[in-house]
Amino acid sequence: MTATPAGTTGTTETTGATDFTSDELMEVNAARALADATTCFVGIGLPSTAANLARATVNPGLVLIYESGTIGSKPTRLPLSIGDGELAETADAVVPVPEMFNYWLQGGRIDVGFLGAAQVDRYANINTTVVDRGPDKPEGRLPGAGGAPEIASNCGKVLMVLRHSTRNFVERLDFVTTLGHGGGPGDRKRLGMPGAGPTAVITDLGILRPDPSTAELVLTEVHPDVTVERVRAATGWELTVADTVGTTEPPTPHELAALRALKAAGKPGKETR
Amino acid sequence: MTATPAGTTGTTETTGATDFTSDELMEVNAARALADATTCFVGIGLPSTAANLARATVNPGLVLIYESGTIGSKPTRLPLSIGDGELAETADAVVPVPEMFNYWLQGGRIDVGFLGAAQVDRYANINTTVVDRGPDKPEGRLPGAGGAPEIASNCGKVLMVLRHSTRNFVERLDFVTTLGHGGGPGDRKRLGMPGAGPTAVITDLGILRPDPSTAELVLTEVHPDVTVERVRAATGWELTVADTVGTTEPPTPHELAALRALKAAGKPGKETR
Amino acid sequence: MADIRSLQDAVADLVHDGDTVAMEGFTHLIPYAAAHEVIRQGITDLTLVRMTPDVIYDQLIGAGLVRKLVFSWGGNPGVGSLHRFRDAVENGWPRPLELDEHSHAGMANRYVAGASKLPFAVLRGYRGSDIPTRTDTVSTVVCPFTGEELAAVAALNPDVTVIHAQQADRAGNVQMWGLTGVQKEAALAADRVLVTVEEVVEELAPRPGGIVLPTWVIDAVSVVPGGAHPSYATGYSTRDNAFYQAWDPIARDREAFLKWIEENVRDNVRNSEGALTR
Amino acid sequence: MADIRSLQDAVADLVHDGDTVAMEGFTHLIPYAAAHEVIRQGITDLTLVRMTPDVIYDQLIGAGLVRKLVFSWGGNPGVGSLHRFRDAVENGWPRPLELDEHSHAGMANRYVAGASKLPFAVLRGYRGSDIPTRTDTVSTVVCPFTGEELAAVAALNPDVTVIHAQQADRAGNVQMWGLTGVQKEAALAADRVLVTVEEVVEELAPRPGGIVLPTWVIDAVSVVPGGAHPSYATGYSTRDNAFYQAWDPIARDREAFLKWIEENVRDNVRNSEGALTR
């Protein structure tokens, strides 16, 4: 499980006839990235929102796989944890956790790994372990690796979703928990990693994709009303920008309705409060 | 699974008031050897007969474990194979075969491994792979190792049951499939084998046990009306005989009745013919 | 995703001359009908893999389709030898049979490594045994923490795994229950997977001991009621122990064997199993 | 063989100062009541092991009973940080906390090795990660067949594993179902096993997805209805997500935390859970 930084809330934006937040832009675009996948290994938090939204919109047949051992979960609400009961009850199969990691993940059965992150660098490497808080302070503690190192290594490809800020998009990771593209092209191959690695990082500002020749993340799309300068300012390294930067399609009314319905149903603790 | 040589049938003997065969003597004594066990990894054939008879007589709580994955099978008839349906239907748990060998057997969870054999040598090593049929002839093919090498290595101790003849009790194995006591004391320890190894070989003539100081099989008991000379003649090496050779207790009427009931119920193919 | 299709087409598409094929089943759920279709199609030069090769492998070997057997115990359980297997090994009839022989623990772990896409598995096994002298798929590794030397066995990754299960749904998801042996590992270790099933049901109801293989790890599902006979399918049939005993005299004699295969397998019209597969 | 006995006696007999203890559960079936009994008895200097240490480990750490944590993801799922865990790691309060940190795949395989009584397990993992620089329980092995270098992780063999399950029978056989995580591995890897259960039933009816642990691998069974709360037991309760969210402000503040432990755990009389365990 990979943590998603809490505390940042989306700001409301207006585009055309539709009202949506920057978080919703991120979530909708993350879901769209799963349009062609058969199977997705789902991290909790934003990745789980995206994967469940994909099932409700662009990819109803998408097989959701959670590290708690569920294959083919079909939750009606957003799970709070990767072990919520509904994930097991609606699954095609529930397998022991070691089997999940050995036969299904390492076994190369999963198309897409969907991860969050606390820190990302320009090669889409991930830190979810510790942050340096200065020379006289102890390291700040993050949750740790969870499934991420082997998800990133063994899935066919990796998608990432996180909010865009200089705190998250950093020049240099304080700790490499999970390898994305290492130090550049060829590093994954040299390390014998079966999957293609990160192919897109979807944020509340736009979408970054690795350049095929350098493996460095490049800004390829911005969300409606987001400027390239704003993305640069929120990125902790000198961001490379594609020759032509596209603009993502605004959420459709159907996508927004589906997302809001999922979130309303999935209000954590709703039914137990 | 270890093969038991077919084709030898017990001869009828008379002792006191009871009629029983030499096979029945072997089977009853083999069952008695399980009196104190909690769990038994059961080979098919004679070991399975013995283990099921133990459940019907000296050890009703004995947990039978078959390599097909069944834990706590309680068959009402002798299974023809280690995969008969009744073994699973009456089990406390059915586990995948890899789990059986890794968690339960290698995991050191099983008190007694009960094996048959095609050839045994004086150190209770076992051959179930190939037999030498002379210089100009191809090797004779036996079924192979099955579970025996790791059963003999990892169970707390090993019991063996097979019919006594110079064909089976040989001076030198043509192939070591399964290590018993190797070349003598210390060999198991040197090889890092957790279990104590073979502690008794029960035959239709009597019982052989390894000498604590030499690890060589010694004749410690004969069955009623069997002479030491007859056992020597049926053994392919110069058999060491204990200073005092005991005589096994004849089968009780209860033991005989239970054994015959099991065999009658377990007549192979009975219900499908 | 699994297509639901005829056994004839599925075997023709998925099993090729020279393939390494695992037809698994631990007494239970042995895919006899699929193996008979392999015989009818004369798919040959096979390397067969199985922990417990029994009568069905005896038939494939006797039919001359097998060049190598990877196994750990070859017999007719509770009855005796596999005579066609012995004849091939001892006398090279109808062709020589190469062997790669292991213990059960080793074979089970070879499948586990295969399903895990690891090149090898580790076990505390083969100690003091002559088995490693006759195979190049057993070696050793040293624990980097304790220094203990352990057995390493090479992964098994069949070209094709063929299994029989009780049920599939229309999407090609499969469920089996009862003794499920190493079937999951054998399927997940293979490049291609063919599953024969007793029936197609609207929905796979979760069962105690049930194992589900999702459609996206299976290439084809063929509906073959009774396709495990003389083995059995818990909930559908019982083991035909009489057949296993009747097999012994048939397999002892080359002519009797050939006649049996001709009449019961190759002659599709007289083969009720064949009829059921269309 | 498992004795069915009070939680108080079972914990006192099976869990000792300085032990390595695994209290497993993947969100589901987390043995809260047993951990609270450990707090009440003040059993200390523990090395705690778990893939996903959550609120219950936060409580044990905050109570000052833990010297080392072996884990792969430490958080309050869906809510945020474990503040007591962070306070111990970052500030050494109430005592320093040593860490042995892995990935999930590594931890799962460490349990598998432990249950298999192997000294290590092999996986294709940790590649390019800094994790191995901070632990001495990750190393490498080379495949003797292909030459590939793979990760080796040291086996985990806890002194005691504590789990919660739905049911036991009178003989002490246990069945759990739903998400069963790594509980079987954690139990079979341990020297001693304590299971708390929702209830004792006359017979364990086989369940879809059910895992049975036979009585002869368990030391004690304690009947503690609701013993997984705020985690849950499928078939008996649902996850109290509100509790997990309410925990966040409690755990942020040392005083609030100590007061909560005093009132809800140590003060047995006011603790409904404690009342249920007698």
Task: Please give a quick description of this structure.
The complex is a heterotetramer, with two copies of chain A (about 270 residues) and two copies of chain C (about 280 residues). Chain A has about 270 residues and is α/β, with parallel strands linked by helices. Chain A has helices at about 20-30, 45-55, 85-90, 95-105, 150-155, 185-190, 230-235, 255-265; strands spanning about 10-15, 20, 40, 65, 70-75, 95, 110-115, 120, 125, 130, 140, 155-160, 200, 205-210, 215-220, 240-245.
**What number is the mean pLDDT of chain A?**
90
Oligomer: heterotetramer
CATH architecture of the domain at 22-203 in chain A: 3-Layer(aba) Sandwich
CA-based shape of chain C = globular
Strand content of chain C: 15-25%
E-strand count of chain A? 16
- In the sheet with the most strands of chain A, the strands line up as 6-5-4-3-7-12-13-14-15-16
Strand content of chain A is 15-25%
Q: How many domains of chain C?
A: 2
Task: List the defining traits of the structure above.
A: 273 residues, 10-stranded mixed beta sheet, 23% strand, globular, C: 278 residues, alpha/beta, Glutaconate Coenzyme A-transferase, 3-stranded antiparallel beta sheet, 30% helix
Describe the structure.
The complex is a heterotetramer, with two copies of chain A (273 residues) and two copies of chain C (278 residues). Chain A has eight helices and 16 strands. Chain A is α/β, with parallel strands linked by helices. Chain A has a domain at 22-203: Glutaconate Coenzyme A-transferase, CATH 3.40.1080. Chain A has a ten-stranded mixed beta sheet, with helices on both faces. In chain A, helix 1 (22-32) crosses helix 2 and helix 2 (46-56) crosses helix 8 (253-265). The longest helix of chain A is centred in the C-terminal third of the chain and has 13 residues, at 253-265. Chain A starts with 11 loop residues before the first strand and ends in an 8-residue tail after the last helix. The model of chain A is unreliable at 1-17 and 268-273 (pLDDT under 50). Chain C has 278 residues and is of the alpha/beta class. Chain C folds into two domains: 3-102 and 157-271, Glutaconate Coenzyme A-transferase (3-Layer(aba) Sandwich), CATH 3.40.1080; 104-154, no CATH class. Chain C is 30% helix and 23% strand. In chain C, helix 4 (83-91) links the parallel strand 4 (66-71) and strand 5 (98-101). In chain C, helix 7 (241-252) packs across helix 8. The longest helix of chain C is centred in the last third of the chain and has 13 residues, at 254-266. Chain C starts with a strand and ends with a helix. The model of chain C is unreliable at 269-278 (pLDDT under 50). Chains in contact: A-C, A-D, B-C, B-D, C-D. The C-D interface holds C 116-124, 137, 139-146, 148, 150, 152, 154, 206-210 and D 116-124, 137, 139-146, 148, 150, 152, 154, 206-210.
